[in-house]
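Blinded run. Sample ID left blank on purpose so nobody reads anything into the name before looking at the predicted structure. Input follows.
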Amino acid sequence: MKLDVIKLDAKKAGSVDLDDEIFGLEPRADILHRVVRWQRNNAQAGTHKVKTRSETSYSTKKIYRQKGTGGARHGDRNAPIFRKGGVYKGPTPRSHGHELTKKFRKLGLRHALSSKAATGNLVILDNAEMKDAKTSALAKSVKELGWKRALIIDGAEVNENFARAAANIQDLDVLPSMGANVYDILRRDTLVITKAGIEALEARLK
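Blinded prediction complete.
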């Protein structure tokens, strides 16, 4: 697969050959769904907690005598059937994460990249570098290029001035190649990858 390379000023800068094993697959929703679910579950805090009957603040004294009241037999007010009593088998802090093999995670990333290429939402950028960290200049370039809700993936490191300029632009994310992931790729409309990013991703996914 061959795509044109552009610069931030929208001028052409040649073309690049993309590996069909990474950018030319037929996207499968089931694979993408499993990887996104794995990512979101690992990101979930799992800090939900309720008080059991041993943790509520009532007295542990028996509320009334066992026999002769005509009512049900009860112990203390911490029982789950009483208002403000402890909760029976409620949620406790735990991890929601689950295992997913490295091979499958790589496959998911290939399908995510291929999905953007298949829909025509993949843009190859010559480089993501700026002499000055000017947000206004970058915002103007992004607007002229027509990028909406874009993710930019650079090489091993992101240019510091470019990252600072992009930080205050809404719906524009910048990641190094090792930070590329299925969830961030799919949640953005436009995927922009630099030439250095292409080389790093192909080396990572082969």
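Unblinding after everyone has recorded impressions. The CA atoms of residues 150 and 190 lie 5 Å apart.
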